[in-house]
Please model this.
Amino acid sequence: MTYNSHRSSTKGALVDEYFEVYCPDSITPYHSTLLPVAMPSITYIKDGLFRAKTPNNDYTLDGIILTGQFYRAYNMEINDAYKAAGITLHPTTLYKLLNTDISKFSNKYTALEHVSEQLSETITAIIETGVTGKKALLAMEKALKPLVKVNDSNVQQTDLAVNTIIKKKGLLSVSELMSDMNISQKTLESQFKKMVGLTPVRFIKLKRFINLMRQYENQDINLKNLIFKYNYYDEAHFYKDFKLFMNETPKNYFTSETDFIKKYINR
Model:
C-alpha cells in the first residue's frame, strides 16, 4: 500500500497536507493500524471501500469522508483495490470553516455532505479535475480560504496555543502553555476542545507521542534515549502512553509495522 503526501510550508495555512493512497488488488486483503495524528482530515474515496474498526463503532466507507480527531489508534481493512486522495487540516481549520463545536466529530467518521454540502462540493470539484501533488495542495488552500466563517480573537488565541504546542513538539505542560496566553486556563480548555476536538492536555500528550514515534521511525536516536528526551519519567510511563494511544504493546507493534505505517507516522 502506498501513501504519498505533500506538506504545506505556508505559515497559517488551512491545509496541512494533500495525500494520495493506493492499495492494489494484489496485496488485499490489507490490514493495518492507524494511529491518531492530532489533525482532522477529509478523504475522497475514488475506488473501493475503506473499513475501520474504532473503539466506538465499525465503519464501511465510500464517497467523501470527514475523519475527526481520534485519541486512540484503530484498525483498518481493505479487501479490494482501493484508491483515495484527500487533505489533512490544521487543527483549527475545521472550526474556522464550520463555526460549530468540532468535538462532536471526534473519534468518528462522518459523511462530509452531512456536515457541509458546500465543503463537500468544493473538495470533490478539485479532486475530480485530476489535479494531484503540490498543485492539488495549492488548489485546496485557495478554494478553502473564501469558505472561512470565523477567525476572531478567540480562534487566534487557540491558534497561538496549538502552534506553540506544535513548535515545542508537545514538550510542555498546560501551565507552561498558559504563560503565553492572555486568557484563563478554564477559558482556554473550553475553547480548545470546541475548536480542536481534543482538550489541551490530550493534544499535548498526543503531539509528544507522535513526535517521539517520528524520530524513532527516522532512526535519529534509539528508543530508550527518546523516552527520556520526550520527558517520560521512565520506560513504564512511556509503555503506559503507548498502550493508551496504540491499543497494543510496543513489542507487538514494532514486530508488525509496515512501510505504510512508517509513511503515515511521518506525514
In short: DSSP finds twelve helices and eight strands in the chain. The chain has a mean pLDDT of 91. The radius of gyration is 18 Å.
